[in-house]
Amino acid sequence: MTRPSRTHRLRTLVARSPLRAAGALLVGAYLAILATLAVKDAAGRLHDAEDRWGDGFRTSRARLLGRYGEGLAEVESLIPRDAAYLLLNRGTDGGFMLLQGDLAPRRPLILPDQNRRLPTEWLEEGVPPEVPRDVIRFEGLDRPPRYFHLDEVVR
Amino acid sequence: MSPATAVTIHALWVAALFWLAGKAAVDHVPDLARRSAWSRAGWSWLLGTAVVGILLYALSHWAGMPLRRGWILATLLPCAALGAVGGLRRGRPSVPAGPTTGRSRWLRRAAATVGLTVCLALVAEAATTPFPGWDARMTWAAHARYVHAAGTVDAPVLQEDAWLVAHPTYPLLLPLLQVAAMELSPLDDERVAHVLYVLFFPALLLVLHDVAGRLSGPAAGSALVVVAAALPVATFEASTGAISGYSDLPLAAYWGGGLLLLAAAAPQVATGAAAGVLGAATLLSKREGTVLAVLLVGAAALRWWQAARTRRGGGADAARGTALTCTALVAVAAGLYASWRRGIAARFQEDYLDVLRQGELDEALGRIPAILAEVSRATTSWDWWYGFWIAAALLLVAGWRGLARPEALVLLPPLAGAVAAYLAAYVLSPWREAVVAQVEVSWGRLLLHLLVPTMALLAMAWGGLGRAAAEP
Questions:
Q1: What is the DSSP string of B404-470?
Q2: Could you give the C-alpha distances from A136 to A66, A84, B156, B167, in angstroms and in order?
Q3: Given B128, B145, B149, which is nearest A52 (Cβ)?
Q4: A29 interface with B at CB cutoff 8 Å
Q5: Looking at beta carbons, which residues of chain B come within 8 Å of A115?
Q6: Among partner residues B163, B386, B398, which is closest to A107 by beta-carbon distance?
Q7: Cβ burial B363-398 (10 Å sphere, 16+ → b, else e)
Q8: b/e burial code for range A92-126 (CB count within 10 A of at least 16 → b)
Q9: Of residues B121, B166, B230, nearest to A35 (C-beta)
Q10: Cis before A105? omega within 30
Q11: How many angstroms from the chain centroid is the CA of residue B145?
Q12: Is B344 helix (H, G, I), strand (E, B) or coil?
């Protein structure tokens, strides 16, 4: 017995149940659309990755994060990895928490009011000697973070 | 050698160790050991990363083991050697997932092409860019660096309340994999860990193909691989996908994998242990993991009850052993998390009971319409989901007959439970009036957690459609 051709089977399905055939067509079309979108997106990203293949870590970070990323490299070179520092938040959103993460494992002290200001007693009575002298000021994700010595900030 | 090539090679060396450790586990679970090589590869990655992460967590916290190269190798190498020896000792017979037809062959080729292209693009992007997502940068990768610097999960910077750290009580399983990569690779480059994170995606595709294929044949498995590989929310979306460096995709794979082992397998203690390891990894991956792990234990109990009622697949005794083993492992993970968390000074925590304590329940309930409107918008967002949930709903309705099987009855309650828990959390959210913004940024991630069991239900519905088409 010969197997019915694919065209014949399709015709039979359409004749017996047009709704079911339409459903199968829809599923097929949806899968085709998804496959096309996925391959197109992935191919574009492979092409972009080829351009970045020679980038070292800091270059790739600066490419992703722009001026903020370039500034990170400078700040990192000024504060040792095992050191603590003061993080002053001059940003308008929660971006300073990103700076905390980007500079880890360096440890930022918690300061009042989401790290927007130094404790009042430090300003009135002097900064305790155990407080780290390195200050990093976050100024937004579109600007590089800036380094200060504590004396410059307190003054 | 170019930097990205070096990153890729170093990541694959670490990944091979994780994978071999997982293969050792798979070799000892008869239900998994019988599956095809590709299926075992996916399960090996999930179990390997889970076992390694849990061991490092427990040994560091309970035994004070330093998280340094020598100690990590001493933990990893015996497991990896066991996996390697298991592979040399015997070749495993592969179990075909179902009859192969012309349509399924065509679909399989399409799925392989799409899946492979997307996975290659993910690896290439991860090898050439740092973690892009906010939570990855401010929480997960940051915690990995704090723990790496301290050489212990009990890092003083997490424990002491003097330090500004985002979400210090978030569980550390995924950061610990990153710590292992930092110790085992001489490269000082977080992109090595980024590549390891994206490898969860091919593992997820392989597991989906395996499970869907076993439930409804190879065509269903291949079709669902195409769908999963296309979803931006699971792949290239910078705040949820595999590329993001968030713990959500690994969490989805662990939880979904554990549920599917419980739902589909004939009850065996070894299967319960594998599901328990994945449940433990769920709990130790993210805060929501606690709720999901409890739901997984509930599924194990349901499976036991089901077997006791119907004597399906080996009887109630085996199902009881499966459920108890799974529960015991999740309980150990809960103990580990609670003990580790006790040492941490809580700060920047979102308190989901504060609304109740302040007597604001009425106002909270009044926010339900706005929450549901945003949930609906985010669920149907084309940019994130390409219409997946609408298509899924249509397929589930059209193929409802396929859902009348015991596996569906094990998967549906945890799925419903997770949705209910997440919606309740929004209602009680400490974000209060700003909760819509919270839904906007988080609902996609929470839905991603449900992807694997949902895909399994879709495979069953696909099978139901096939049966309906075969009827006169």
A1: -SHHHHHHHHHHHHHHHHHHHHHHT-TTGGGHHHHHHHHHHHHHHHTHHHHHHHHHHHHHHHHHHHH
A2: 18, 11, 21, 21
A3: B128
A4: no
A5: 164
A6: B163
A7: ebeebeeebeebbeebbebeebbbebbebbebbbeb
A8: eeebbbbbbbbbbbbbbbebeeebeebeeebeeee
A9: B230
A10: yes
A11: 23
A12: coil
CA distance B342 to chain A (A): 20
pLDDT (tens, 9 = 90+) of chain B, 472 residues, equals 899 999 999 999 999 999 999 999 999 999 999 999 999 999 999 999 999 999 999 999 999 999 999 999 999 999 999 988 876 555 555 555 555 666 678 888 999 999 999 999 999 999 999 999 899 999 999 999 999 999 999 999 999 999 999 999 999 999 999 999 999 999 989 999 999 999 999 999 999 999 999 999 889 999 999 999 999 999 999 999 999 999 999 999 999 999 999 997 677 899 999 999 999 999 999 999 999 999 999 999 999 888 888 765 557 888 899 999 999 999 999 999 999 999 999 887 778 888 888 888 889 899 999 999 999 999 999 999 999 999 999 999 988 889 998 899 999 999 999 999 999 999 999 988 889 999 999 999 999 999 999 999 999 998 888 665 555 5
Residue numbers of A between 66 and 95 with CB closer than 8 Å to B: 81-82, 84, 87
In Å, how far is B118's CA from the nearest CA of chain A? 5
Residue at B71: amino acid letter: W
Residue B190: its chain A contacts at CB < 8 A? 57
Task: Give the whole-angstrom CA distance, residue B329 versus residue B59.
Answer: 15
Residue whose token pair is 């496959």: A35
If DSSP states are collapsed to H, E and C, what string results for A41-70? Answer: HHHHHHHHHHHHCCCCHHHHHHHHHCHHHH
Asked whether B218 and B100 are in contact (CB, 8 A), the reply is: yes
* Separation between Cα atoms, residue B330 and residue B413, nearest integer Å: 19
What's the DSSP call for residue B234? G
Test B2 with A54 for CB contact under 8 angstroms.
yes
Distance from the Cα of A155 to chain B's closest Cα (Å) equals: 24
Q: How many angstroms separate the CA of residue A119 from the nearest CA in chain B?
A: 13
Q: What is the pTM of this model?
A: 0.94
Is there a contact between A81 and B149 if contact means CB atoms under 8 Å apart? yes
- Chain A residue numbers with beta carbons less than 8 Å from the beta carbon of B6 are none
* Beta carbon pairs, A and B, within 8 Å: 146
